[in-house]
From TrEMBL:
Classification via PANTHER family: SACCHAROPINE DEHYDROGENASE
Organism ancestry: Eukaryota, Fungi, Fungi incertae sedis, Blastocladiomycota, Blastocladiomycetes
InterPro entries (alphabetical): NAD(P)-bd_dom_sf, Sacchrp_dh_NADP-bd
Official protein name in the record: Saccharopine dehydrogenase NADP binding domain-containing protein
Domain Saccharopine dehydrogenase NADP binding: 8-111
Pfam family, one: Sacchrp_dh_NADP
Amino acid sequence: MPRNAPLILLYGANGYTGKLSAQVVQREPAFAALRDKIVLAGRSEAKVKEVADANNLPYRIFSLEGEDDEIDARLQDVRVVVHMAGPFIYTAEPMLKACVRNQCDYLDITGEQPVMQLIHETYAQEITNSGILAISGVGFDIVPTDCLAKRLAEALPGATHLDLAICNGPGAALSRGTALTSFEHFATGRPMCARVNGEMKNVGVAYTSRRVPFPTYGTKNAMFLPWGDCYSAYFSTGIPNTNVFFPAPAFVAPFVYYGSMVGAVALKWIPGLHCLISAAIPKIAQGPAHHESNIDVWGEVRDEATGRVATGAVIVPEGYLFTARAALLSAIHAYNGTVTKKAGPATPSVAFGAKFVNEIEGVTELDVIVRDAAEVREAAAVAH
C-alpha cells in the first residue's frame, strides 16, 4: 500500500489541463476537500508559481530529468501523483519509476499506448511489488470509453469484438500539449496498432472504416485511429478485438492511410522537419474554448459466434474540463482508498467501476441495448 502521506501532487500544473485543474479545485465545491491536500508542481518556477498564486495553492519545482534523489525528495510527503506533463512518451517513465520508488499511487491523463504498456507490461511487476495503484488515462477520452466498454462487456458476456467511436462537436480544438503529444507519437515512428485476437497488431491509421450512429451528431462515416483503448480496453473487458473510430468522410480514409506512411518517411529523411513542426505546434494550437459543445462516445460489442450485439453511448462535456474533473476525482478515490482494485496496474473502470464516468459533472449515460442476431439483421436491412 502507498505510504500514509498527506499530499496529492499535480505535476505539469502550468500546462493547459494543469491550469484548468487548479481552477477547478479552487472554484468548484465538489473539490473543496482537495484545497488543503493538493500541491502543484512542474519544472518552470515562473510558470508554476503564476498558476499557484492565481489559485491560492502551494507549489514545488523539480525536473523529471534530474537525479533520482532530487525527485524523491519532492515526493516524500506525497500519497498520489497526478501526472499532467507531456509529451508523455518522454515524461511518463521517469515519473512512474519515481512513484514506484516512493510508493506513491500514479495517475496520468494520457491515452498513449506506449505509456499504457509501461504500466501493464514493462513495470507491471515493480508496480505490484511496490503496492501502488498505477492508471494511465484518468481523463478524456479513456474514462468514458473505458467505462462504456466495461458496461457493454458486462451486458454481453463472451463478446469477441469491441468498437468504440468518438465525435467532437464543431470547432473542437487541441491544447498545445495534446497537439505536441500526438505529433511526437506519429513522428517517432511508433506502431499504429489495433487489438486483434488478443494481440496488438500494427495496422496503420484508417485501415478500416464503418458507419456510426452518434446520439447527438447523427450517423457518420468513421475511420480507425490507434487510440489508447485499443490497448487498454482488453484489461477492462477481456474482449480480444478492439477498434476505435473517429468521424471522417469515406473518401478521406485512403488519403490518410497512405499519407501517414509518406509523412513518416518525410519526417525521417528531411533534415530539420521534425524540429520545425515541433516549434510551430505551440504557436498554432491555442486550446479549446470552454463553451465548446458536448462529445459523443459510442460503443458496440459483438459476439461473432451468436451474432448478438450490445450498443450504448455516453455524452460528456468539453474534453479538457472533463479531464480536469475526472483526474481530480480519480485522485480523491485513490487517496481515500475508495477503489475496487487497491494496487497494481489498472484501468479507470477496473479501479473505480464502470459507473465512475457518471460521477463526473455534465455526463449523460444512455441505456445499453442488447439485440439478438435476428434483430441485428433486421436493423441492417432497414438501414440499407
